[in-house]
Design a protein that fits this description.
elongated, 10 helices, Rossmann fold, 2 domains, Elongation Factor Tu (Ef-tu), domain 3, alpha/beta, about 325 residues, six-stranded parallel beta sheet, 12 strands
Length: about 325
């Protein structure tokens, strides 16, 4: 899969494409259904399959820390889209200049002149252009005028008849229903990132951690969790993780800290995936490092019991 950052880097071999447009936060089952349809259409017509998305999320520009919590960073989206055999992802940098594009300019300059789109699939509620002027009906008219086919994507519902969306995934996570979130996503909810050097405080109290900076303005989860970790060899590694500001040590930036069980390898610089299995408690401020250590001992014991029970069930 080719990753194309910016419309000016769009290559000739991807022109004449089948295309969908969106933010694809979470790349949930609804997104997957749409992308599968697009891939099938591309293979049927022997046309490149292209997904256009925006970074940062438009609402992060307009709402800042009041924007909806982000489920996936860009790298995670690319990982899931590549698994679905997309030929190229075109990432448009969303800023206030781009937000001033008129709907007509978006259609003519991007869809027609740059991409030469042949087939476009979007939801009926898709809006684009300054003041959200553009809609599905405008795209239908443009398709007739410029010679591309447009299709309205179908809505995908869960077992209870509720529309599957990024919002429904956030709602599941907000109630710590990770099983439901996994059903809606089609994969476990996880957070990925590169391990960076921290302040080594965990090591001084006997619980060294792998630290990951969270490249999200708003996180969908906070607290202490039982986790599984991929990316440190062939086997899953188990642990406990804290997601938040680390109030006991007066932290400022959101961070993911993972204490891994039974591993002593040097994992600085490794890119790991942290899969959240169950929430233990909320993040809290302790009066001393000693009190923090005592609580971590309890958290680790809870996690060990969880994994032992899970292992016994599997066997």
């Amino acid at each position: 899969m080719n990753f194309i950052r910016g419309i000016y880097n769009f290559k000739k071999q991807h022109r004449g494409c089948v295309l969908t447009i969106g933010n694809f936060d979470g790349v949930h089952c609804g997104h997957q259904s749409l992308v599968k349809l697009l891939v099938d259409k591309g293979h049927q017509d022997n046309l490149p399959v292209v997904v256009m998305l925006f970074e940062p999320h438009p609402l992060e520009i307009f709402l800042g820390n009041k924007a909806p919590a982000r489920l996936t960073c860009l790298r995670e989206k690319l990982h899931y889209l590549e698994q679905m055999n997309v030929d190229a992802v075109l990432c448009i940098r969303f800023n206030r200049q781009f937000a001033r594009y008129s709907a007509q300019k978006f259609i003519v300059e991007l869809l027609v002149n740059k991409l030469d789109v042949r087939f476009l699939a979007v939801g009926k509620d898709f809006r684009f252009g300054i003041d959200r002027q553009g809609d599905f009906l405008l795209l239908q008219d443009a398709g007739v005028r410029y010679g591309f086919e447009i299709m309205c994507t179908r809505t995908i519902y869960d077992d209870h008849g509720k529309r599957i969306s990024s919002t429904s995934v956030r709602e599941a996570l907000s109630t710590n229903n990770f099983a439901l979130a996994q059903k809606l996503l089609g994969h476990p909810f996880s957070i990925s990132g590169r391990v960076v050097h921290g302040n080594a405080l965990g090591r001084t109290i006997g619980f060294p951690t792998a630290n990951i900076l969270l490249r999200r303005i708003v996180m969908p989860v906070r607290g202490v969790f039982i986790v599984e970790v991929k990316g440190l060899g062939e086997q899953l590694v188990y642990g406990v993780a804290n997601i938040g500001l680390r109030p006991t040590v007066k932290g400022i930036n959101q961070q993911l800290e993972v204490h891994l069980f039974n591993t002593h390898m040097d994992f600085y610089g490794c890119y790991i995936e942290v899969i959240l299995k169950k929430k233990i408690r909320e993040e809290q401020k302790f009066d001393s490092l000693g009190a923090l250590k005592m609580q971590i001992v309890k958290d680790v014991a809870i996690a060990h019991k969880f994994f032992l029970k899970t292992y016994l069930k599997r066997n």
